[in-house]
Amino acid sequence: MISFYCMNGSKLKKFVSKNAWFKIGKWKEPGFLEDIVIWSELEDRPDMALSQHPEVYLFADHSQFILKKEYDRLTGEIGEELEKSAAAALRRIGREVREAIKKMDRFNPGRFTLASLGRYINLVKTHGRQSLRFILLGYVLNNIYPASLPAKFRLGRRQFTPPSLLAVAAMPKELSPMVAEHLYLLKIAAKIKAGRNAASDLARQAEKFGWMNSICWWDEPFDADYYLQQARLLAKNDPAGKLRRLKQRRRQQIKEGQKILRALKKVYPRAYFYIEMIRQMADWREASWDAVSRAGVRVRPLFRELAAKNGLSYNQLLMLTRTEMAAMLAKKNVPSADLLNRRLKSFGLFAAAPGNRSLVISGAEAAKLSDLAEGRRQQVDQLSGLTIWPGKVTARACVMRSTADINRIKAGEILVCPMTDPDYMPAIHRAAALVTDQGGVLCHAAIIARELQKPCIVGTQRATRVINTGDRLTVDADSGKIKIWK
Question: Does domain 382-485 sit in CATH 3.50.50.60?
């Protein structure tokens, strides 16, 4: 057990540098959200299916890490449970996710009190715990799914490998909101191009999808004016034709996938079950965090009101920890605006379970800890990862370390990033291929690459640390290899 009561900055740096870390992800989450998520993931929850959890968690410079030895333990234990009772685990996870979404969607307080803030924190903690489970499940399924099949095999007249089968057969069961948003916007653009009034359609678009700009609670939700601008841009080309082609391609993709799955079920029933599990888990993972995002939009006015009462901006308020937020509501001492501004520039948390307080890090120290956990940069000319969608693309790389870089990518370039989330969608639409550091078969990049049929390799672990913007890459997603032409 690690004690933080006597750990200072130098001891923390030594601890981080001495250990091997596994990066769970990189999302630009506010301190309040990250603090809730960290403690949800460190809590022992034996009431949940697949309830394994890490003992130590590091969040530094928007990257999330657990110890590599704990990652190996957790994925090993989850893999053993799935081998014994995957069907039972799947059913129970479904019940838990649906119940959590139902509770989150019902949460809409008129004001923040200590009680209502506490309920909100507990609701978000449940979804945060589920999020970690989906991340670990994705990595576990990366390993146990291929083991259920030969290295090469035939279904009907086609030859497959486990990755190539997964690419064409593991379409999500539901239409992803990110894809649905784009399809509906094309429909509106076609209306505008035809000179028809689309005001009511734009209002519905904002109501249905506006929350997607507030995935991690930072930014204002999209409004009708934003969607009008986007629709006008799409209307300059052939939105009706593009919409028709996308729908036709998706229908064909689903039809082909279903045909392959029927054949697979007869010959390799265990592999069929794992693919069905991947499809269902992908939908549940997305729906779970979407509910958190929608709730974030609903309570946004309450956060604004609380910030104004205490002389803070909305973004400053969201850099409070959960205990600091409760202290503010109770009119007790809270961090100064200067400290919150330093946290906005760079922020970190280091915590262990159970019961120890977290160590809050701000300023350059957080960025330094992230570099220590990442390890040394290496000079290599080839990487490998998990194929999500096959294909071969040679093009210029555009490396993004956050969504602040989105406007740098040009059409036809290869997007290289830590991992994608809905904020990356404008860049994903422009990219010819996707390469990520993190992610497994349930990650956002995997879901979207299958929907959009873009060559994609995830889980390289270090793409953003060995590839530079401007490097010429060959992404061979048929083999899961990336060649770097320096």
Answer: no
